[in-house]
TrEMBL record, chain A:
Lineage of source species: Bacteria, Thermotogati, Deinococcota, Deinococci, Thermales
PANTHER family: ELECTRON TRANSFER FLAVOPROTEIN BETA-SUBUNIT (PTHR21294), ELECTRON TRANSFER FLAVOPROTEIN SUBUNIT BETA (PTHR21294:SF8)
Signal sequence residues: none
Protein family (similarity comment): Belongs to the ETF beta-subunit/FixA family.
GO molecular function, one term: electron transfer activity
Keywords, sorted A to Z: Electron transport, Transport
Originating gene: etfB
The UniProt record lists the keyword Zinc: no
SUPFAM superfamilies reported in the protein's UniProt record: Adenine nucleotide alpha hydrolases-like
Electron transport recorded as keyword: yes
Pfam family, one: ETF
Name the record gives this protein: Electron transfer flavoprotein subunit beta
From TrEMBL, chain B:
Gene that produces this protein: etfA
Pfam families noted in UniProt: ETF (PF01012), ETF_alpha (PF00766)
Binding site for FAD: 201, 226-227, 240-244, 257-264, 278
Keyword Flavoprotein: yes
Domain (Electron transfer flavoprotein alpha/beta-subunit N-terminal): residue spans on this chain: 2-181
Name this polypeptide is given: Electron transfer flavoprotein subunit alpha
Gene Ontology annotations of biological process type: fatty acid beta-oxidation using acyl-CoA dehydrogenase
Keywords: FAD, Flavoprotein
An example Gene Ontology molecular-function term: flavin adenine dinucleotide binding
Cofactor: FAD
Top-level taxon of origin: Bacteria
Organism: Meiothermus granaticius NBRC 107808
Comment on bound cofactor: Binds 1 FAD per dimer.
InterPro entries noted in UniProt: DHS-like_NAD/FAD-binding_dom, ETF_a/b_N, ETF_a/FixB, ETF_asu_C, Rossmann-like_a/b/a_fold
Length: 249, 313
């Protein structure tokens, strides 16, 4: 069986973002394998360990994405495919290009993150499924293969959750609770350097243009009430402020 | 043609549907409007929808799967020749609209805050980078656009439209639902609430959420929870606010015993007013609050409830 994880490289959660020339500048920012994609990578490695076959990682993005692919290889993925495209490429266009490569690989299933921390998009998984003509299960918290042709999965909805049976191949997106990703070990990192990382240069026309990015931090009032001595008075004052000053209750 | 796909609960249109109609009207220089309701037994919602739109399509396809919803939407797009599709943003809609955009070879503008047109393109703004960055996007038609809840005043009724039933081909490989674990939701939904009262680990126990529920109920709001609280099993996942939970933008967000990790902030940092009660004056949440109370949440919360009750009497 073959299991594919599609990933992105994103700024670390704690990174301080800067804007230069109307765009987010990633200079000096720590870049990592996206946290939700990391769950996807861990899951395909576990599937391969449990069922045999191959765990492949894939990404469409600029040269720098290679580091995130190497991280996934160091975790235990067998090989990587990097579709190299500079600049912003929207998820629908990404899905169309990635699907071509995925179709050639003919995997059992594809896993990707539920929402990546750079573009805050949830579209890549379902768009890939559509491009491949496969079903999609988003926000997956549990996955169990039932042979090579179907799987049982639990996933989150807007309210509540669902247990589903899904014919394979299919696309899944990850959610918190799916697994605990392993850390790459030193031997893992050494081995990753020798693993196959195939680069395919790509020229992609994005369907969406990002005109301008800004950081609009709301100026907060930062009004602090000491409620340690008289909690009742503090509570009354807070309710009064919300009613009379902010007029929100 | 602009197609608005209308979210409903089986008997009524949801608030998000009315906001989506308002968004579509803002783009009316690009074409006439039509609506679509998807699901089963759609008579009542179609009747309601025709008060807002000149044409309402119905697609009786059964219960929700992303494949069915995308197929129904695409059938309406083909029937109407729509070049723009507008839908209220939710986790479910963000799944099937991605499928729809691919079917249409359209640009997808996700979870937008506002939208307009320059005559040939659709322009929209949205958040990115964990809700920290606001970005302006532009795309040529065809465009599928999802509208973030609580960003547009709901549309008012206008005219009296006709209803037309669509025939939708069932998609091929599909997910089969074995069991649906619906979370019992009292009151307003978290995503649409104008007041959100969230409890964090500082509350200390599942039982302490009785106070959070009571305060939310008095203020006509919804209950939220942090990841720590959900992981501890005190509250259902559907209430989680943050990077891997819901993103909310209420008029006022009241955080009780919440420290305010970056991942939590990603789900609430755009709230109009942020209020926090925490005994630790150094908690990160205080960096983004408008009104904060430094104190013991177990003492402050009952007092807040009393004061809120008095106010609402």
């Amino acid at each position: 069986m073959k299991f594919i994880a599609v990933l992105r490289q994103v700024p670390d959660n704690e990174a301080k973002l800067k804007i230069e020339g109307g765009q987010v500048s990633l200079g000096g920012v720590t870049l990592i394998l996206d946290g939700m994609d990391e769950w996807a990578v861990e899951e395909v490695i576990r599937l391969k360990e449990a069922h045999g076959g191959e765990a492949v990682v894939m990404a469409l993005g600029p040269e720098r994405f290679e580091e995130a692919l190497r991280t996934a290889l160091a975790m235990g993925a067998d090989r990587a495919v990097h579709l190299v495209a500079e600049g912003y490429v929207d998820p629908i266009s990404q899905a169309q290009h990635l699907a071509e490569t995925i179709r050639e690989e003919a995997p059992t299933l594809v896993f990707t993150g539920g929402q990546q921390a750079d573009w805050d998009s949830q579209a890549l998984g379902p768009a890939l499924a559509e491009a491949l003509g496969w079903p999609v299960v988003t926000w997956t918290t549990q996955l169990e293969l039932e042979g090579e042709t179907q799987a049982k999965a639990k996933h989150d909805l807007d309210e509540g959750a669902e247990l589903v049976r899904v014919p394979l191949p299919a696309v899944f997106t990850s959610q918190q609770g799916l697994n605990e990703p392993r850390y790459p070990t030193l031997p893992g990192i050494m081995k990753a350097k020798k693993k196959e990382l195939r680069k395919v240069p790509l020229s992609v026309q994005s369907k969406v243009e990002v005109l301008e990015q800004t950081i609009q931090e709301r100026q907060r009032l930062n009004q602090v009430i000491d409620g340690s001595k008289d909690p009742v008075a503090a509570a009354n004052q807070l309710i009064r402020l919300l009613h009379e000053e902010a007029k929100v209750i | 043609m602009i197609l608005v796909i209308l979210d409903h609960d089986g008997s009524h249109l949801r608030k998000g549907a009315l906001e989506a109609i308002a968004r579509a009207r803002q783009l009316s220089s690009l074409g006439n409007l039509a609506g679509l309701v998807i699901g089963e037994n759609l008579g009542a919602v179609a009747e309601e929808a025709r008060n807002y739109l000149p044409t309402v399509y119905t697609a009786e396809v059964g219960s929700y799967t992303p494949e069915r919803w995308a197929a129904a939407a695409y059938a309406a797009v083909q029937k109407s020749g729509a070049q723009v599709v507008v839908v209220a943003s939710s986790r479910q809609s963000r799944t099937w609209t991605a499928r729809l955009a691919l079917k249409m070879n359209a640009a997808l503008l996700e979870d937008t805050l506002e939208s307009s047109t320059d005559g040939s393109r659709v322009l929209a703004s949205r958040y990115s980078f964990l809700n920290r960055v606001t970005e302006k996007q532009a795309a040529h038609l065809p465009v599928v656009l999802t509208a973030k809840p609580n960003t547009t005043p709901p549309a008012e009724p206008q005219g009296q439209g006709g209803i037309e039933a669509l025939t939708v081909e069932q998609p091929g490989a599909q997910v089969e639902v074995l069991e649906r674990v619906a979370e019992q939701k009292k009151g307003v939904s978290l995503s649409e609430a104008t007041v959100v009262v969230t409890g964090g680990r500082g509350l200390g126990s599942a039982e302490a959420f009785a106070g959070v529920e009571a305060l939310a109920s008095v203020l006509g709001g919804a209950v939220g929870a942090t990841r720590a609280v959900v992981d501890a099993g005190w509250r259902p996942y559907g209430e989680q606010v943050g990077q891997t939970g819901k993103t909310v933008q209420p008029s006022v967000y009241i955080a009780l015993g919440v420290s305010g990790a970056v991942q939590h902030q990603a789900g609430m940092n755009k709230s109009k007013y942020i209020v926090a009660v925490n005994k630790d004056a150094e908690a990160p949440i205080f960096k983004i609050t408008d009104y904060g109370v430094v104190g013991d949440v177990h003492q402050v919360l009952p007092a807040l409830l009393e004061a809120a009750k008095k106010l609402k009497d």
